[in-house]
Amino acid sequence: MRSRDDGSTECEYVNWEKPRNTRNVDKQDPQCSGGDTAWSRCSRLMAVCAALLCVLLLSVAILQSIKLNNMTEERDRLQISYDNMTGERDRLQFSYDNMTSERDQLHAERDEFENMLNYTIQQRLRYFTTKRMGWNEARRECRSRGADLVIINNQKEQENLSKMFIGEAWIGLSDSAEEGKWTWVDGTKITTGFWWQGEPNDYDRREDCAATGSKYAKAEVTTWADYSCETEIHAICEKKAND
C-alpha cells in the first residue's frame, strides 16, 4: 500500500506463489546438466559409446568370418585328403584284384605245366622239355630219360597235345633219311598228318624235321610244320607209363 499525491491511499496487490517443493524436481545427470554445453558433452559421450559398440560388433563379425573361413579351408583340405585316400584305396583294390587274377592265372599255368610234365594218355607218359634245342639233341635228351620224341597216331592225340602243350615243340617225325618220306622215330610211316596249310614245304631244301604248335598256324589241330633240324625249340618226349 502507498500514498497518492492527493493524500489518498492506494493499495497494490502482488500475486504470490508458493515455491515448489524442490524434492519433486527430477534429478538430472550432472554431466548432462548445465545447459547447452553439458548436453553437447553428453551427446559426444553417447556417440563415442555407440562407435565403440560398432567397432566391437565389427570385430566380432570379422573374427567369426575368419573362423568360418578357416573352418571352410580345413573342411576343403579334409575333403581333398579324403578324396585322395579314396582314390588310393581304389587303386590298391584294383592292384589287389589284378594280383589276385595273376595269382589264379599262375596257379592255373602251374597246374597245366605239371600236367604237361606228367600226362598219361593211352598208357604213355609225355612231358615237355624246358630247354630249347635242335631236333637231334632233343631226341638224345628224351632217350637219356628212357623215352623218345612223341609219336602221334590219331587226331585225338593231336588235340590233347594241342591243349596240353602250348608253343612250338619237336615231335618224333622227320624225312632226313629220304626227302618227302616222313617217318616216325620207331621206323613206322606216317598215316595221318596234321600239317598247317602249305606245310611241309622244305623251305630252302633244309627243313627235314617236324614240329607241332607252329607259330604260323591259326588252327588248334593242324599245327605241324617242317623246320630246319638245327632250329632250337622245345620238344615233347614220350615213354610207356610202365617203363
UniProtKB/TrEMBL annotation:
All copies of domain C-type lectin, residue ranges: 121-238
Transmembrane segments: 45-66
SMART domains in UniProt: CLECT
Alphabetical keyword list: Coiled coil, Membrane, Transmembrane, Transmembrane helix
A Pfam family reported for this protein in Swiss-Prot or TrEMBL: Lectin_C
Stretches of the chain forming a coiled coil according to its record: 68-116
Name under which the protein is recorded: C-type lectin domain-containing protein
Lineage: Eukaryota, Metazoa, Chordata, Craniata, Vertebrata
